[in-house]
Amino acid sequence: MSEDTARLADNDELGRDRNDGDGDPLKGGGGHDVVGGDAVMKHDVSSLVEEIGWGRYHWKIVIGMGMMSFADAAEIWIISLISKDLICEWKLSALQEALIPGLVFLFMAIGSLTAGELSDVYGRRKVLLIVYYTFTVASLLSAFAWNYYSFLVLRSVAGFCIGANYGVSICYSAEMVPITKRGFTLLLLDMFWVAGGVYVCLVAFFVMDIKHGWRILILLTTLPCVIVIFIIHLCDESVRYLVISERNKEALEVFNKMASENGKAPIEGEVMASEVDRGSIIEVFRKPFTRTTFMIGVMFFAITWAFYGFFYLLPDMMSYGYCHLSDLFETTMLNDVGCTVYTKAEYLFLMVVNLLYIPGYIVSPVSAENWGRIPTLRLSYWCSLVFTLTLLICLLNYITYVELFLLVNFYGMAIATVWLYMPECYPTYIRSTATGTQNAISKLGAAGGTFVTEYVDSVNIRYSIIIISVVLLLACVASIFLVQETMGKALKDEREPESIGMTTLHHTNYGASDGSPPQEPDGTAVGGDERKD
Question: How far apart are CA 47 and CA 18, in angstroms?
């Protein structure tokens, strides 16, 4: 009998059942090592996350990461809502106006690309703290911008930070919650996104018609960032990051804190080591990730082009009375210096548009958790394309409102499902790098969508709609080639060339909870026939 087989046989004598007879699942979830005659329980990270389950500890994560989502929405809406005031105050050309959102999204892409790889090296929590401190300072200073160029620089820095934090926060959330709660967690983050948009529109309703209203709006929408920084200080580092960084004792401390706050018994033993090399951006595009990376990249690029392009298209559709959208309320108002600005009715309408995203955000995780990620993606993308095309035909105004309702819901459903699906496709050692890379690609789509929309719809709104439709068609085709379904699967931590990011095995499986023999990662029994001796 080989040495490994003998060791495993000793482990079996100590009890291979994870519940170990006392019904406490936190004493299982792994194997045993025998050191000096004593059994040391080894816990698998995925098993511990599942066994501790959802509880009070995770609400802290949801609030912290949710407030980042809130800030992301606020950043997008601020640029859209103050554009007319900036044009008036600084006498901007159409090109200068289009450059503001274009550059903000471009720097979001750079920030996402940079922070993704940094957080895989230095940790999720540390990166989030640095970028949020920077964002808060840059955003506050932009309220006191003295000209167009100072504003452009400061909002670009703020955009860099938003791009940096959002992808990392999604990864962090996915790594800390149980499988069955990933969709629910994303839904809650999406609700914060909606709240961020509603908050900005509500504040704009009250302050934009007074002197220096746009500056006051920026100040008031930056204040919630203080809450975010406070909550991030309360959050722990990702347990999966700690394990692949060989900081197993710290990971166990976090798990015990999680168990305590969730009302579970302390964890006995150690967290199973997971030694891997760090990944790189280049590896994201190599096998076995190549197909998944390119397909998700095309789809993410397209939906953010459409999603954010629509943010800037809708106010212009109202201002120009496209498809009778101005019939319900006045859409033209001159301020005290004779410039065209939004009316209060328009701010209320945009607030309602924010709320219209909620059904799509709710349907996304429900469908993805029951029907599957890929079918949900295909449905939402094809429907987004169909209802975008319907805007080319102006029918009765109430039909246009129905079209807009369905359109924003399928946009929301598509982008929410991509965010749910994407982190699940990559292992921990490269997950944040991959998510940051994909988020950077998406922000390039957002930059293109907003720039083209701002520039083209001044000529003809239908041109913008046609361009959005063509981009969405490419994404619909890409969705056909997705093959990796991740519904109900545990996140993978280590490098395994034969898989694409999802597994429940970590090195050797030292015996399953049903008493089946221990296995190597390829599924063969440890020790082969020697175990019969």
Answer: 10
Query: In degrees rounded to 5, what are phi and psi of residue 12?
Result: -65, -35
d(CA 527, CA 533): 10
Rounded to whole angstroms, the Cα distance separating 501 from 478 reads 20
Residue 395's pLDDT is: 67
What are the start-end ranges of the H helices in 143-223?
A: 148-176, 182-207, 213-222
DSSP three-state, residue 12: helix
What's the pTM value of the predicted model, to 2 decimals?
0.74
* Gyration radius of the chain over CA positions: 25
Edge-first strand order for the sheet with 270-271 is: 30-35, 38-43, 270-271
Torsion of CA 316, 318, 324, 328, to 10 degrees: 180
Is a pLDDT exceeding 90 seen at residue 299?
yes
- Name the pLDDT band for 17 (thresholds 50, 70, 90): very low
User: 153: which 2 tokens?
Assistant: 């620089």
Task: Give the span between the Cα atoms of 325 and 323, in whole angstroms.
Answer: 6
Number of helices (H), then strands (E), belonging to the chain: the values are: 19, 5
> What is the average pLDDT value for the chain, to the nearest integer?
78
Give me the residues paired with residue 491 across strands.
Answer: 502
Q: Which two structure tokens, joined as six digits, stand for 271?
A: 């967290």
Helix (H) or strand (E) holding 386, with range, is helix 373-389
Nearest C-alpha neighbor of 419 from the set 51, 72, 17 = 72
- DSSP labels, 165-187: HHHHHHHHHHHHS-GGGHHHHHH
Integer Cα distance of 184 and 182 in angstroms: 5
Tell me the pairing of strands 38-43 and 270-271.
parallel
**How is residue 255 written in tokens?**
């798990």
Whether omega before 288 lies within 30 degrees of 0, making that bond cis, reads: yes
CA angle 95, 461, 455 (to 5 degrees): 10
Strands (E), 262-393: 270-271, 333-334, 340-341
Q: Do residues 80 and 312 touch, judged by C-beta distance below 8 A?
A: yes
